[in-house]
Structure of Bifunctional NAD(P)H-hydrate repair enzyme:
Amino acid sequence: MQVVTSKEMQQLDQYTIETLGMKEELLMENAGRAAAGDIYDMYPEAHTAVIFAGKGNNGGDGFVIGRTLSSLGWNVYVYLLAEEDALSGGALYHKDLYRACGLPLTAGTGVPEPESPEEGIIYIDAMLGTGIHGELKEPFYSAAKWLNSVTAPVVAVDIPTGVPANEEELPGMAVNADATVILEAPTLSTYLYPASHYYGEIRIVPIGVPRASWNALDQKRQTWDLTDAAKSLPERTQESHKGDNGKGLLIAGAYNMPGAPAIASNACLHAGIGLLTTSVPASALSAVASHVLEATYFPLPETEDGQVADLQETPFPWDGMDGVAAGSGLGRTESTRVLTKRLLTETQTPLVLDADGLYFLPELEAEMANREHPLILTPHPGEMGRLTGLSPKEINAERFTVSREYARKFSCYLVLKGPNTIITTPEGRQYVSTSGSSALAKGGSGDALTGIVLAMMLQGPTLEEGVCNAVYAHGLAAEIAIREGISDYSFTASNLIDYLPKALAFIQAQKK
Ligand SMILES: NC(=O)C1=CN([C@@H]2O[C@H](COP(=O)(O)OP(=O)(O)OC[C@H]3O[C@@H](n4cnc5c(N)ncnc54)[C@H](O)[C@@H]3O)[C@@H](O)[C@H]2O)[C@@H](O)CC1
Ligand SMILES: Nc1ncnc2c1ncn2[C@@H]1O[C@H](COP(=O)(O)OP(=O)(O)O)[C@@H](O)[C@H]1O
Ligand SMILES: [K+]
């Protein structure tokens, strides 16, 4: 599923109408019909739709939805928040058709009187869609406020009115929908927070935009969902041996941080790696090994307090590896800086850096730029802030743009974590993972992700797909755990590791 900006959506629309010759009214008919069908299925007990329509195309969709739901047996009322003569194009055509069908319409700039709550009423927000600019003006401001006060379900068409489509700051007022029926493709704000909270349940309906229109659009941003994971996750062959499934080296931890390497190692092993060597400061080894039986170990020299030390001459076994991951729990000492520099310059395989492994990168930009082998960085917004000099708030407001600029600048794969983690390739292709749960907002979740990325990037089929699958499976494991009754209070990275086998089995089952 492609993810677009409002401008890209307009280009798609324009190509379909002007170049391919599909009538605007027909495209709107398709859109409204698809949305109405979805709303009808979503609320089998409902019998009445109260639709708030604007004067643009979002309002035009509202008239089609009204007419369609009426044909399906519902009572419908449209409140047009504009004078009737303000409409033009497809919206005017569908308003006239709605009226010609004898269906009720109130036009003007007032907001309807509040009604007593009644079972079976659905409010539909078809006021503004991707055409919004800036703060909501009247009468939409009051109408949005009014819709936010009703107890009945509110379904937004395409975008909740007031929410910008792109990476813009949320205005003071927006419709807080229970569900949003997105037409054809989601826009950026669907996957940006806090904007995404306003969407409620996300439902995406195809509206029949021809493939030719999509092919003409130069855009490289999409979701990564169950279908993508199932399609790309390679089948394990009967005759494979451990060497075929990737040999990885994980460098992590300290005497007082044995959890990070233990979690990352277990996650890596459960995500399918053939052979794992875990490298931890010597005094942490027995604690880690007692939790991870399947790894082999490469102890690191350490300081008196059990942190990595003096790694300048350490003969790391990376020559025999297919991939290396480093960072979690290493600390931010000079030794970590030395290690990070050696990793960037000496490893001849894909390299994953996370947590403390990201800390010294602003001092090692030349080494990053000169690196010839794939580099995969997995920062959370705080770490991304350190890499870019921006605040986490600024990062989250422009997650797509910030990730793309950084990944292209340093030719790296960037996994910007958070709800709807974004994976960006060195060429600027972007994937938004649709899996995840707020249960993951706990120490250790990131360590688990590092391990899963190390394992899955080595499974392929390409590194890009492997990294996307790692992020997807990580989020799905948390979702399944919550679905099966684990409280999001209690959920830990250990639960995530326990549920990873179910998540992978679920993805594999979709292949059948
Ligand atoms: N792109 C596509 O492929 C399709 C889009 N359709 C619909 O078209 C919508 C976009 O339509 P439009 O471009 O006409 O735009 P909208 O219907 O979102 O709104 C445009 C109107 O809102 C006003 N407006 C903008 N910002 C405002 C603010 N802050 N306060 C008050 N009024 C404001 C503008 O002056 C303009 O009159 C989509 O969201 C979707 O619902 C569908 O009809 C068909 C297919
Ligand atoms: N609210 C949330 N919704 C979905 N995923 C989340 C949420 N909060 C955190 N995550 C995920 O959990 C992981 C946390 O990683 P990180 O912040 O590095 O944690 P730590 O370093 O403590 O292990 C990331 O994969 C992130 O995407
Ligand atoms: K809307």
